[in-house]
Amino acid sequence: MEHQIADVAMARFSAKPGGQLAFDVDWQSKGIQGGQATLSVIPAPWQQADTVPLAHASWRQQRLHFTQQVPEALNALADGRWLALDEAGNPHQLVMSSIHFQQAYSDFRLCRGEASVEQTLDGQRLTLHFKVGSQQLSPAQRQQLETLAARLTSDARISSLLIESFTDNRGKAELNLRLSRMRAEQVADQLRGTLPTLPMDIRAYGEASPLTDNDTPAGRYQNRRVTITLIQAEQAS
């Protein structure tokens, strides 16, 4: 995920194998002499909040490389705050705004296979996205399901789960329907390990009911999904 800072630098968030996040800033102009820079969270011009230093890095071949506090930096941008880079003795500040950040961050999270928790009219819904042709859960998705299951063991309000599975429109419709069923069963099997007696209603739709068009990789990724909706006792009656 890239962000051009004026005409002088390119900021880039990336995820390495294993999930570690990094934040790099490549200087595209003259004037960098080396030395250390501080990455901080700052309020947007219309906000009232304190500056919060996050991490330090040194310029190496026109680049700053941060691996500490990167999730905190992303969360700050998602909350509407900005990032700033300062150098000791340099009166100028390099600022990265959060304007137009939300859509890019949403795509970044989808590409990492992260699930999102969405409020719905009938409880909460957990959405998991899948790679092309895959029915396997990632380690991160298994952890998210384990966290959800652990929460439900102590929540007597939830009477059942509705598990719905969808694909993109690539490939044959009958194969997509079968794949959506296998993905839903994978999710259910993972949850049953902790919740063996909780009723689960599994519905596979294949390529029906896309969230968005299938014309782009990002759109197809959003459509390859399994949603788990928590049904409360009064809703089931």
From TrEMBL:
It is found in: Cell outer membrane. Transmembrane segments: none annotated. Pfam families: MotY_N (PF18393), OmpA (PF00691). Residues 117-234 form the OmpA-like domain. SUPFAM superfamilies: OmpA-like. Keywords: Membrane. InterPro entries: Bact_OuterMem_StrucFunc, MotY_N, OMP_bac, OmpA-like, OmpA-like_sf. This is OmpA-like domain-containing protein. It comes from Oceanisphaera sediminis.
